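User: My advisor, Dr. K., asked me to get a structural model of this assembly before our group meeting. I'm new to this, so sorry if the format is off. These are the inputs:
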Amino acid sequence: MRKRNGFLIAGLVLTCALAALILLGFFWTPYDPNAMAAGPKFDAPSPAHWMGTDNFGRDIFSRVLKGAGTTVSIALATLLIGAVCGSLAGALTGYFGGPADEVLMRLNDALTAFPSILLALVVISILGPGSRLNVMTALGLVFIPSFARVTRTAFASLRDVNYIKSARLMGASSRRILLVHMLPNTAPVLLPALTIGFNNAVLAEASMSFLGIGATPPNASLGYMLSEAQGMLFAAPWYAAGTGLVVVLLVFSVGLLGEGLRRRDRGVL
Amino acid sequence: MECEERTDKIFTLRSPRFSEGCLLMKYALKRAAAGLATMLIVSFLTFAAFDLISGDAATAMLGTSATPERLAALRAELGLDRPLPVRYGEWLLGFFTGDLGSSTSYKQPVWDLIASKTGLTLCLSLVSFVLIAAVSIPLGVFTAGRRRFEGARTALNQLGMAVPPFFTGILLSWVFGVGLKWFTPGQFPDAGRDFAGAAVYLLFAAAALSIPRIAMTARMLRSTVQEELGKDYVRTAISRGNDRGQVLRRHVLKNALPPVVTFLAQTMAEIVAGSIVVEQVFVIPGLGQMLVTSISNRDYPVVQAIVVILAFWVVLAGTAADLINQRIDPRLRLGGAA
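Assistant: The format is fine. Below is the predicted structure of the whole assembly, which you can bring to the meeting.
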């Protein structure tokens, strides 16, 4: 009998709950996140203002909902760029091999040695700081190598497996082999990689905007709000606590989900 | 380097000590050369990238309405008319002689701006590194092979990885700075006058930086040791009556360590990146803070210099890890040198 996968369940529940809240935040927030004097200034958390208010009397819970939306959408865009380009490069080089594979992997080794935030900072300083699109592009580019590596390993390990060989013997095209035979079988590796990538993207985006070179107001992201909150640490510690906890909760629940996915597939692989 | 095996006569056995030492040297030299080459490539790419984007300095100085003749004259004066590799060579030479040009926003030599800050960032990185190694290695080894509370521990580990350093930093400044008043957040004491204060301050910054990496390293070490513990030689050793702890220390650790050393080198790189953020949280006047300010100011000479310094630091850590690994694991030594 199979043991219940607590990580997968807890991760799914938490992630779905957060996703629902964030989705809700796109359409409706308790107060207008940018409206001044939605309540008294520096009001401690109360039933009216769940996370209190800031120096302008803005409702922090509404701001956090909106900010989480910004952070998550940037992270998802980053993930999309990184995962699509990276997986494509990784799948092709892993399956076909050859000199292109060699060269790309060398380059990859060199790039992955460098921390993603440092690389993203370099790209950002080239593209120009302060724009949401530039943050997405910079982070997306930086996330390509790690996805390429994971995908390449997964595809390369399947290249000489018997069922792939027989598919080839039966005259299946490379595209069919890659998409129909290989891709589903690499899911156990790629799915956890996606959750890790998402977490890294959230943390990287939050760091960038914390540094003041990421998304800027009016579409403040969680990182920017934290740097704002740091200035009010004496007067409104709940601002930093609330915002930070949302970041932690977000990364934690997706991390649990990834752990659960890995555990589920440990027997399969 | 030539590594003649001493087999001049058929019956003489080759001296294992000699050839081993020789191979070691050969590998070390090879690895150092590879590291150096990487540094050159990285610095060239950085130089070229910033050269490309910073556009034409002459146009920037004279404005777009300047006549072509004046532009050409200024370019010649600034040395911008020469090919990229030549300018790179000059810049690299300047990098080692302390002449990195001058900052466009501070109107000061870049070297003067960053020289004093490099030491501080280095200090922060090293303290964090020691903290990570000192906590995560015992933690990882201790928890390996113990299955109790496995789920809770994994959850705790995930939580540790989920806390971003800037949030930990804010929490620490709130609890220990605002609450307990062990240090004043945002005011880094002058190390010359108040050494203890500066050390405490750095320690808190390092703690904020280290927590996620401690979680990652402990997890990594735990799974490597666990895998190693399941191998046949361990069972044999224990079934022969050897002490469990001794087997762990003498055999298992030796085999489990190389990937961890590599991971720690990667950690060093992540610390460098993390220090950029943590310096911002704790208002430590280091390289990271300078980098962020310079990016906002589009002060490319400074950005370029700092990026190259940080990149060198990363490559250095990677090279050191490889050298340490081949000391620990003879198989890597032979494989690497052959």
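One thing worth pointing out at the meeting: Chain A has one domain: 20-26+59-266.

User: Perfect, thanks a lot.
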